[in-house]
TrEMBL record:
Keywords: Protease inhibitor, Thiol protease inhibitor
Chain ranges of the Cystatin domain: 28-103
Domain of life, source organism: Eukaryota
Residues in coiled coil: none
Organism: Citrullus colocynthis (colocynth)
Pfam family, one: SQAPI
Protein name: Cystatin domain-containing protein
Amino acid sequence: MSCGAISNTNHELKDRKKGYVWVTWTQIPNLGDPFVKIIAEFAVEEYNKKYKKQWKCKGIQQGWYTVMENNQTQYRFHLEQDEVPEGDENIYEAVVSGSVQSHDLPLLLKNKNLILFMPYFNY
């Protein structure tokens, strides 16, 4: 799979134990970074494994990250599908959570978890 890169802040209101918290997503400056590609590829692999699909990534259209209170980082991507089946959407949104193991290069993300992988509808 080749998940290559094809303002920058947006906000999302998240539910947190009977309350709400604003989450600030910061745009990833370099979608071609190997670390970013590894996380996007993980999202696709987990989705394919869980749902027994053959989803293939043509490229990362957009990407953001946010650091949560529990030292977890969430990565959010808009991924373009390669070989789109008839009737299917070509852009999907994926969210992966994990913690950065080391700030030395290459960066490693441990305890990765696929939180979301679904068609993205830009209304």
